[in-house]
Amino acid sequence: MSTTITLKGNEVHTIGHLPSIGTTIRDFALVDSGLQVKTLENFNGKKKVFNIFPSIDTPTCASSARKFNEEASALEDTVVINVSKDLPFALGRFCAAEGLNNVETLSDFRSSFGDDYEVTITDSPMKGLLSRAVIVTDADNKVVYTEQVSEIADEPNYEAALAALK
Fold first, then answer.
1. Domains in the chain, start-ordered, CATH in brackets?
2. Other CB atoms within 10 Å distance of the CB of residue 42
3. I want to staple 69 with a disulfide (CB 3.0 to 4.6 A). Which of 11, 38, 85, 100 is the partner?
């Protein structure tokens, strides 16, 4: 049932598979930099781009957060939600230093998001962190696009993810 991806060419596995196109995403309880819990309800009526990654403290993760932040400002009724296992304080510090104002950056440090969305890494030195993935939904929380990035060190396909919103 797991998905096989790689980290610098070495096999790594996730707990399962991303949600299928057309399915409704599950609720979640993620924590923002102010230690407030955010759930699906906080983003009602908005299209959502989940930018999921192992840690904000790696160059590829930081690049994806910056790129989606740039693109988000031009999208109507859309929210980009960065999700990782990083502590809320680290995420807040990164966003403040980078001036990332057009995205929500939320921590999965005490929730089941990784397991519920089947992006938890099950082996390798990265065991327990989230894989690099993108899930895009419409305003009704139906999945319209997914990408499980096959090589963790690679950036996601931004153009395809953003095109799914149109």
1. 3-164 (3.40.30.10)
2. 16
3. 100
